[in-house]
Amino acid sequence: MTAVLTRFISEQDAAAVESRLAGHWERRVTAAADFGDDYAALWSAIARSATGGKLLRPALVLGLHEQLGGDHGDAAVEVAVAFELLHTGFLLHDDVIDGDLVRRGRRNMLGERVDQALAAGINGADAERWAQASAILAGDLLIHDAQAVIARLAVPEPLRLSLLDLLDDAVFASAAGELADVALSAGTARPGLHTVLEMTTWKTAPYSFSAPLRAGAVLAGAPAQTVAVLARFGGLVGRAFQLRDDVLGVFGDEAVTGKSTIGDIREGKVTAMIAYARETPSWAELRGLLGRDAADGDVARLRVLLVECGALDYVEGLISHAVAESLAMLDDAILPEALRAELARLSHQATERVA
User: Fold this and answer.
1) Which of 54, 55, 138, 177 has its CA 20 to 30 A from that of 205?
2) From residue 345, how far is each of 110, 238, 319, 341 by CA, in Å?
3) CATH number of 157-355
4) Which residues of the chain register pLDDT less than 50?
């Protein structure tokens, strides 16, 4: 059974989501076989890439729907599946953009396809191009699948259209965040702290927190005021979640996170820590340690500088402030007591995690 980040989702609901996902992969692999072995192999690789996640987004959809008294149980599972498909698609695209070959402690799809091509005697550049095309197409397919799942929901049309709009909003905002992330790293956008924090929020909060929370509430027929509170709460928790992810991307334990702790440094990612450090005297030395050629000693020194210049403490303060603001928002919200308690737990768990 997949371990989830919150207690919103029961083992029974988690099993239902995983069963629907397994059926989806089986149907896609079978259909892909008509287009050749490689296309079927691509879908099999997509299915493998989806395993091992925390089912956070499905948990939020199902938990909100249940705790707000919803009666669209089957549709809620389908929406939960849609958000997991969307998440997997975004991860595939993210790995291509970042050039990452490992996720969840194992070779990701990009890494698998590179290895396969090299083993077949394909030269490095062509192997990388084939692997990147595979992952980009796979991500595109999953985003389409997520939309198709919601478009086919057996619910009244106004509700279905509202859910499609939620998904569209999440995709739109997340793409803006990803583009801003790359622009900052490439130097085509000014790396001011405000810009970096906006990117941090857009990249994760809409599709990982705000949209799933809102979707569960909309399915349950919650009033617009409740949906609006959940959107703002999700934005705050999502920002804190991504800030924690940025910290773990430099200071985390690879054995626990399943991700490289030098990837962000070698990619020259402009996180909130880096944006803060740029305004300190340490930047004169620190800037030379970022980039693809960073050695292990450079990475170790960069970590020391981020601590000494106050960048790490600053981001920890941002995380604490976002959590406190999200909790204060819950105090003023008209929500069931059990739901407020679970949302508060979510806010803490999302930011105190080590993986």
Assistant:
1) 138
2) 35, 14, 15, 6
3) 1.10.600.10
4) 1-5
